[in-house]
C-alpha cells in the first residue's frame, strides 16, 4: 500500500513526458510545414520565418501583445476545458464573452463605473451574465434534449449581433456612426502591471483562474463527480451522481469564465471600451488550447504561452513581410490534427528496435513450408 503514491507519481510523470513530447513534436512538424508554405508564398522566406520566430520578443510592446494573448487564451482554454472534462461539446464561450463584455460595459458607463467599484462590479456583472448564458444551453439539453453544440453556436450569433446592435444604437459613443462606445473612466479600467503595455490586472485573474479550476476539478467532490460523469455518465448515474446537475453546473462555470474574459477585453488595457467584434475570434481559439492541453488546467497556460507566441508572430509577420497572416491557420490545423489524433513516435521505436532474427524467422519458416 505504501508504494501506491510512488507508483501514481511515476505514472503521472510518464504521462506528462509523453504528452509533452507529442505536443513538441506536433509543434516542430507544424513549423516545418509552415516554413515550406512560407517558402512558396514569400519573396524573402527566411526573413519572414525569422519574423515569425522572433518578432514577439523584439520589443517591450510586442512582448506585451504576446502576454496579453496568452492571458486571454488561458481563460478561454480553461472555459472549454471545463465542459470538455464533462464530455460536453458546448461551443458557447464566444457568446459568453460578448454577453459578459456587454454587462461590464453597462456597469463601467454607469455612475458606478466612475467609483472604486467600477472594476469589481464590472467583473461580477460580466461573470454572472456569462454564467447565465452558459446555463441556457445546459438546461436546454437537460430538459429539452437540445444538442448543446447547435444551441451554443446559435447563442453565439445572438450575443454577437445583440452586442453590435447595442453599440450602434443604444450605448453612448463619441459621435454618430462610430462603432465603439465612449472610453471607460479610469476607475473602471484594469491598471497596467507594466507601463505602456497591455500587461494588466488580467494576468493576475488568469493565474488565479488556473489555480481555482485545478482545485475545483482535482480537490473537490464536485470535480471528482464531473470527471466521473465525463468518463462514464451512465456509471455515474448508477453511483448516485446526478449527471444532469453536474453537466449543467460545468457549463455554467464555463460561462462564468467566458464572462470574465469579456470583462478582461473591454475593461483591460486592450480597449478600455466596447467596440464591434472586439475579440477577433480569439475566444473561439480556446478550443485549440483545450485540445492540446488535453483539458488539463495546469497545462492550459503552457499551451497558451506557445500558441500565443505563434499567433502573435504570425500577425507581426503579416505586418512586416509579404506573408499573409492566414499562414497561422496552417499551423493551427496541423497541431490539432497531430495532437488530437493517436500521433506518437511508437512506430519509430518499433522500426529501430526491430529484431532482425524475429523478422527473418517467419520468412524462413514460410520457405521451409514450401
Order of helices and strands: HHHHHHHHHHHHHHH
Averaged pLDDT: 85
Helical residue percent band: over 70%
| Estimated structural class | mainly alpha
Shape: globular
> What's the total count of β strands?
0
User: Whole-number radius of gyration?
Assistant: 24 Å
Low-confidence segments, given as residue ranges, are none
Q: Could you tell me the strand content as a percent range?
A: under 5%
Q: Compute the number of helices.
A: 15
Task: Provide structural commentary.
With 370 residues, the protein is mostly helical. It has one domain (43-322). The protein is built from 15 helices and no strands. It has helices spanning 4-41, 45-54, 60-85, 93-108, 118-144, 148-169, 202-218, 221-231, 233-238, 243-267, 286-292, 300-320, 327-340, 346-352, 356-369. α3 (60-85) packs parallel to α7 and α8 crosses α10. The model has no long low-confidence stretch (mean pLDDT 85).
Amino acid at each position: 500500500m505504501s508504494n501506491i503514491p510512488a507508483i501514481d507519481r511515476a505514472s503521472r510523470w510518464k504521462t506528462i513526458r509523453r504528452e509533452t513530447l507529442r505536443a513538441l513534436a506536433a509543434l516542430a512538424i507544424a513549423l516545418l510545414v509552415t516554413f515550406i508554405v512560407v517558402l512558396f508564398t514569400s519573396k524573402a522566406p527566411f526573413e519572414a520565418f525569422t519574423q515569425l520566430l522572433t518578432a514577439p520578443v523584439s520589443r517591450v510592446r510586442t512582448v506585451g501583445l504576446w502576454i496579453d494573448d496568452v492571458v486571454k487564451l488561458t481563460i478561454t482554454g480553461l472555459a472549454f476545458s471545463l465542459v470538455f472534462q464533462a464530455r460536453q461539446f458546448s461551443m458557447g464561450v464566444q457568446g459568453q464573452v460578448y454577453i459578459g463584455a456587454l454587462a461590464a460595459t453597462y456597469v463601467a458607463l454607469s455612475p458606478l463605473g466612475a467609483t472604486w467599484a467600477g472594476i469589481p462590479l464590472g467583473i461580477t456583472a460580466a461573470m454572472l451574465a456569462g454564467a447565465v448564458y452558459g446555463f441556457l444551453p445546459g438546461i436546454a439539453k437537460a430538459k429539452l434534449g437540445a444538442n448543446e453544440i447547435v444551441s451554443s453556436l446559435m447563442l453565439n450569433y445572438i450575443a454577437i449581433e445583440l452586442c453590435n446592435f447595442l453599440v450602434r444604437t443604444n450605448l453612448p459613443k463619441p459621435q454618430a456612426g462610430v462603432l465603439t462606445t465612449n472610453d471607460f473612466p479610469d476607475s473602471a479600467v484594469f491598471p497596467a502591471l507594466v507601463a505602456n503595455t497591455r500587461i494588466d490586472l488580467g494576468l493576475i485573474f488568469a493565474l488565479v483562474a488556473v489555480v481555482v479550476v485545478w482545485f475545483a476539478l482535482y480537490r473537490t467532490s464536485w470535480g471528482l463527480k464531473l470527471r466521473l460523469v465525463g468518463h462514464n455518465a451512465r456509471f455515474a448515474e448508477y453511483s448516485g451522481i446526478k449527471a444532469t446537475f453536474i453537466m449543467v453546473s460545468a457549463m455554467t462555470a464555463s460561462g462564468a469564465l467566458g464572462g470574465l474574459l469579456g470583462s478582461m477585453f473591454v475593461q483591460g488595457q486592450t480597449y478600455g471600451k466596447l467596440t464591434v467584434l472586439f475579440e477577433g475570434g480569439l475566444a473561439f481559439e480556446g478550443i485549440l488550447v483545450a485540445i492540446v492541453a488535453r483539458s488539463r488546467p495546469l497545462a492550459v497556460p503552457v499551451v497558451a504561452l506557445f500558441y500565443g507566441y505563434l499567433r502573435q508572430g504570425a500577425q507581426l509577420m503579416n505586418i512586416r513581410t509579404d506573408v499573409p497572416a492566414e499562414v497561422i491557420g496552417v499551423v493551427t490545423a496541423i497541431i490539432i490534427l497531430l495532437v488530437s489524433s493517436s500521433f506518437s513516435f511508437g512506430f519509430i521505436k518499433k522500426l529501430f528496435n526491430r529484431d532482425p532474427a524475429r523478422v527473418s524467422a517467419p520468412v524462413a519458416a514460410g520457405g521451409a513450408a514450401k
